[in-house]
């Protein structure tokens, strides 16, 4: 496999912003991966960027090194032990397609994570989550390739050090590994979670009182489609900001001025506050600035209407973060990786 030169990255990021990379390789087999990494190691001081679905990043500049598009696709490996099921997927699989596959096989646990954009391989890096479920809740292990040595290593949940939209691969092990397989621990016994968000009300609107996991998945999909733009028609990266976690004392102080502020306890002393609510209260929801802006239905989502640059979108994000800080004394953080 030979890397291509001077390749546009516009087709490979869901924001649809223009950027170029010096070298590009679309890797579809482990043999290709070994070949391109051998070449990469021979290039001194060449930056490396691993791309999955391109749904969680914003390019603000060209990439001066190698972009490796991970398209590894192999049939899932399934091991059933009683009511438990271990499902091993290759990293290049589309996340939502994988969720639908598990449901079609009668393997449950991923239904609340339906329609999250991206690839299977990226899911543990970010510890993706939605509607009361995170990857760490259904994670068994992953296999990753060491970029410098070619060593294949198994990481347990403990070794991944999962946190809120976080893992060891965003911290101590950042830039050292390429995830090639992820194994999930699912169940053949349905145990749905419908208490978070509006899942329950959506199901009740369809007269569903005892939902199946598939029906929960369909409800989550409907909710996300109603709130979030389809990146195939409107450039975005889904939720741009993390929901901030603040202390109980900070929350009580905010309640004096904003008694209606929504919050969710994460411990006895800390509470999660919806970033979308903070941004909307700041008057940003639906604001447009020519070719980019804040989505009209979801203040967490920044959008590219066509022709916007990554720098313009990032400046908007920084203005929103400053606005929230000034008004609420809460520091927002980007969930999206800014390049």
- Biggest sheet descriptor: 5 strands, antiparallel
**Mean pLDDT reading:** 91
- Under the CATH scheme, which architecture of the largest domain would be assigned? 2-Layer Sandwich
User: If helices are DSSP runs of H or I spanning 4 or more residues, what is the number of helices?
Assistant: 9
CATH C-level category of the largest domain:
Alpha Beta
Radius of gyration: 21 Å
Strand order of the largest sheet: 6-7-12-10-11
Explain the overall architecture:
This protein has 339 residues and is of the alpha+beta class. It has 3 domains: 4-70, Uridine Diphospho-n-acetylenolpyruvylglucosamine Reductase, domain 2; 77-187, Uridine Diphospho-n-acetylenolpyruvylglucosamine Reductase, domain 3 (2-Layer Sandwich), CATH 3.30.465; 235-338, Uridine Diphospho-n-acetylenolpyruvylglucosamine Reductase, domain 1. Helices cover 26% and strands 27% of the residues. The chain is built from 9 helices and 20 strands. It has helices spanning 30-41, 95-104, 123-126, 157-160, 199-205, 213-227, 248-257, 275-281, 310-328, and strands at residues 4-8, 20-27, 48-51, 57-58, 63-70, 77-81, 84-90, 129-130, 133-134, 139-146, 152-156, 177-187, 235-239, 245-247, 264-265, 270-272, 288-289, 292-294, 301-304, 337-338. The strands form 6 sheets. The protein has a 5-stranded antiparallel sheet. A 4-stranded mixed sheet has the order 1-2-5-3, with helices on one face. The longest helix is centred in the last third of the chain and has 19 residues, at 310-328. The two termini are 26 Å apart.
